[in-house]
């Protein structure tokens, strides 16, 4: 054997041994790294062997083959076109052809109708959350109600409307700002906070990721997906990034037991925008 | 009442009052040992901290209206312990961002400073934490709900706004985790007992402990933060290897073309 | 003496199929063997590995949103509620022997499948191999790229972990952002408001059947057209437009091809065993109210994510209707990108006036205008890619993520023209140094007029 062929032979031998090793690893319970390395040797040995063999042991004369223009010659094309036209008598029956065409087109359109079953009419769901009932208590994920002094200064808590802790459009952030942070309520929302606790929708108005990063010192909410930044002290107005709208605010109040409730739905539809959001 | 019994009554009331006052005075003052700690802490504080945080921790504003150091009167024992034990404080230059470093003070000095700073106001006390019997699975759920948005699901840390960052938790000891959670240092929000009970705090600390050396059954972890480092590995190592292989198998074009069209 | 068994088998088959003449012409076909012509094969072999490992995975994966409580061997998730999909992915990773290595090989193969497609697209573009008669094959290739991107996204979203679920949320919102039809499209795709009860089962059938079937069909046509046209070749001694010089299919080219398949598989297997990818147990099960920092899609969608981040907060609102912000980077830009890719051969033919058949490849340095435009476009998308990693770059290098994003905003418009200018100069100088004639027939400033059909083509 030439040295190249010896290399190929060695590669095949390594591959064979690795196959056995792989079987043993698997039989002994499996281990991901060993499995990967064995598979690497199994396939790599065969590949290396074949390529070494191909590069050095098989004929290497460069061969030339003719290449013709891809297009058929003018004569053959015209001949075939003439044959097709002669055998079909369609162009003298325009009405028939037209009706056949419209039948196919109509069938195509009709077959698209079952697509309508794939999902419900979008309707008003996108514009309302379960808070719309009004007067609902806010609860944590475990269903526990929240009192005003449950949220410490600089604290943040995620809540939902009672009974709807699985509603994907309803997660709400309760944030208690510090006295020295100068919270500025939006016009008409002066009574939407309870003792320094403000409530905003947790869904980013950009593409709907939960805005989970509360930076307590600066009063900024940061969305980790595309870095939209909202100013908690100014109605969650976007101050950086691709979000174009403030986070909707929830009107908070307390009931007779001192539990936090939502007086109504958010100030605007939650989450990302859509064509008729403003209507 | 006879004059004798009136005298007895007055004596009895006086004694009771005195005893009560003495009791109240004793209870109201820190124990003698703790008083030493506060005094020692105050001395250390005056030397190492007051230039930025003020003599009584009230913060310092320079004459040209720059804040050299914030008030730490409400930082509490927890805040002080976190900053000192992770070496973030003392900060050599008040314009620098605090970063984890080797702690400057030894454990005793830290304890003294912690007691002193705790006495300046009613900030959070140094929390207890016990990870040995904690529920790591529940800790994971709490971590992913409350901590992962800033610190990432693997505890690798993450970017915040304007140059700030949530640090990596790779070197965080359970006591430091607990202290940070209760104190909410810097940009971190505060999670007190009403948000995270003591048991939940233990669980979170235990999960952070797990994240410091998690199971990596798949092999080299490449950062555990997902597609960004994985994409780099795919391109540099994967595509690089594949291109090297085809370069080995195929030929290179001749340098000087001599073709006819 | 009896003939060897292979020959007897071949004779048995020939008596039933009569393929001897076909086989002779097939085995004698000549293939040029430049290394850059093998990149498309890399993509093909990655696809084969994807199908093989994918079939194995389907035997264990449950594409179901039914909620269960985990009780497998990964302790930090024991007792946690999750969907069956996520649970079956955990089982594959921890409790099925060789499950994790198969999962990881599958995922690395997907990343490399797309890398190979993109490099192959680049090779075809920069060598002008999309010109007549290969425009159809170019368009099939672009379609394969789009299908591969969608299938990759569908595949990693099946696992219902926190990271991929966040990506699905973003996809839903992007569909929502389309004017007029967005709310309908999102509702029909997801079966209602996000997350919808059916998205996992729909993604599953798309990922394992619909798109792979389309890919196989289109790949077959793609390869058949290559065989029909014969492969292009670089200029060189004895090479011309009316011949093809190289090696015969049998035995040399076939051996190299088969060997390349095994070597490709070996790289994927090594990565799959040794480099952890998509550690879903760390991300946790998907919860629409939770998120982690450092949330990115797989690399081939990074340009879209970066475009979403780089786009400033602009929206169009009028009379209660709006075109929301994500529409511009995610739908419009994507549409323009793929639209331009599709029509490029026709645009170039219109501008250069060159409608002849071409079977000789260009060397990129001999086409400075095309190469410069290609590099400029590539740099635009590379900046988008890095934009998608803005938060990771910031925290790795201690930078302000806001400053990083502003830098990318400016770079997106400043870097491509500079890259074009540098590339153009480089091409001209390299050609001059090698004594190669410049093939370009157009100057940059003539392009707009030629596109509009005003200037006469040569």
Features:
heterotrimer; A: 279 residues; alpha+beta; six-stranded antiparallel beta sheet; four-stranded antiparallel beta sheet; 4 helices; flat; C: 458 residues; mainly alpha; two-stranded antiparallel sheet; 17 helices; globular
Please give a quick description of this structure.
Chain A is an alpha+beta fold and 279 residues long. Chain A is built from four helices and eleven strands, in the order ααβααββββββββββ. Chain B is mainly alpha-helical and 261 residues long.
What does this structure look like?
Chain A has about 280 residues and is an alpha+beta fold. Helix content of chain A is about 30%, strand content about 15%. In chain A, helix 1 (about 5-25) runs antiparallel to helix 2. Chain B has about 260 residues and is mostly helical. Chain B contains ten helices and four strands, in the order H-H-H-E-E-H-H-H-H-E-E-H-H-H. In chain B, a hairpin with a 5-residue loop joins strand 3 (about 160) and strand 4 (about 165). Chain C is mainly α and about 450 residues long. Chain C has helices at about 5-15, 20-25, 40-60, 85-95, 100-125, 135-155, 160-175, 180-190, 200-230, 250-275, 280-285, 300-310, 325-350, 370-390, 390-395, 400-435, 445-450; strands at about 30, 65-70, 80-85, 235, 245-250, 315-320, 320-325, 360. The model of chain C has no long low-confidence stretch (mean pLDDT about 95). Classes of the chains: A alpha+beta (about 280), B mainly alpha (about 260), C mainly alpha (about 450). The interface of A and B includes residues 33, 154, 155 and 218 of A. Strand 1 (about 65) of chain A pairs antiparallel with strand 5 (about 245-250) of chain C, so a sheet runs across the interface.
